Amino acid sequence: MNSSLQLGNIQITWLCGGDFELDGGTMYGAVPKLLWNMKYPADENNNIRLLNAPLLVQTGSSNILIDTGLGNKLTDKQKEIFRVYRDWAVVDELKSLGLDRRDIDTVILTHCDFDHAGGVVMLSSRGKPELTFPRARQIIQAKEWADVLHPNIRSTHTYWPENFTGLVDSGLLELVDGDAQVVDNITVRHTGGHTRGYQLVEIRGSEGCAVHLGDLFPTHTHVNPLWIMAYDNFPLEVIGLKQELIPHYCRKNCWFTFYHDIFMKACLLDDQGEIIEQVD
After folding, report:
1. pTM for the predicted model, two decimal places
2. How many domains does the chain have?
3. Where do runs of H (alpha helix) occur along 27-108?
C-alpha cells in the first residue's frame, strides 16, 4: 500500500520509482561512518538502501508528479552497477490508484540526475522510447536545462540524453527562471546547491503545508546542516541552504517530504530539528 499524506484539499502519495543501493559514504560526504552508520546502517559492503520515490500530488483539479524515478530503460549492467533491488513501477502504481499515465498533467523535476529524471522517457512494450506522461508539461529550471544540454565532466555521468528523448519536440518542456507558481498553491523555488539549477517545491494545502527539498535533505538523518552528500556540486551552498530552509519551514510547521529515505516518507520537526511526527 502506498504511503500518503493529506493536507486538506491536497493529497501526496509516494510511488515506486525503482530502489537501489549506494555506497553509504557517498551519501554523507566527510561525516565519519562511525556517526552516520548508527542512524542509517550499512551492510557488510558499506552499501545502504535508498528509495527513489516520486511524489504524486493531487489537488482535485491537477495530478502533479515530483520527479520520476529510474525509469524502465536501465540495462542489466546498469542495474547491477547501481544495485537496483526493486524495479520502477510508477505507471503500474498509478493504475492501482485509478490513474492512467495520461492523467498526469504536470511533472516537476527538482533536477535532472538519472535517478530523478529517468522516468521522463520510458520504453514502450515494443522497446521504443516515448514520453511516459505524454500530456504533462515538464517544469525544469532554465539553468538546469542549460547544464543538461552542455554537461561538464562531472554531470555528463548523471545527465543522460536518453532520459529526454523527444521532450523538446513534444512542446511540453516548460523552462522557468527562478521562483514560479506551477498551479494554485504549488510553487517551485530555485535554490541551486545540489546542482546549479536545483529547485525545491512548496505545497500549501487547505490544512497544512509541505516542502520537498529533495536532495538538499535526502533522508531524515541529513537534518544536520553539515551532513551533506558527496554528490552535491556546490557543498558550501547546500550547507547554507539547509541552515536557512530547514528552520524556515519548521517555523511554518511544514512537513518535510523525502525521496530517498527507506525509514520514512515525511516528517514534522520541532525547532531543535527533532522529529515530532512522521509518515512511514
Report:
1. 0.98
2. 1
3. 33-39, 76-81, 90-96
